[in-house]
Amino acid sequence: MIIRDLFKTAVLEVKLDLNLKNLKNFCLKYKKENKTRKRSNPTGYQSHDVLKFIETKDLQKKIIHYSNIYLKDILQVKNETNLNHMWFNMNFFKDYNRHHCHPENKVSGVFYFSSPKNCGNIIFINSSPIEHFLPLKEINGNFNNFNSTHWFLPPLENYLYIFPSWLYHHVEPNLSKKPRITFSFNVN
Prior knowledge:
The protein contains 2 helices and 10 strands. It is of the alpha+beta class.
């Protein structure tokens, strides 16, 4: 007997060693001087593209490095890629990000540099409508990669998550009194 894993989806997770104080100071200054934009965030703050700022260059280098590893080793993409967009999110008490994906890109991701306790997980959605065929009440309580409708990853400070841009996801409300601050990005 052979059991084959079909249509896998991988999320790259890596702990970085970046100077979080400099990034935080940059974000606070930027937020004071620039209005928010609205995308997947009905509340909270989202910056415009911050690729041109020198304060984000070290993070950009890490994103490009690990995105290329993901694209070459996992997705088998042969060409080098470019970091298209990068922005930061500040989600305060009860702020969240709606269900979305990142069209017209290859991989996307998030870097957490302020993630207080109870600030909300990132939830990834299985695109296969399992719940229409396999009622949750019939599962013996052992959810796994084959029977789960969604999967969450915790917000870990100084961690980078990279995933395919077609993977739908959302972020739970921040239930902490401290802000959750992340950088998000798209690579093509």
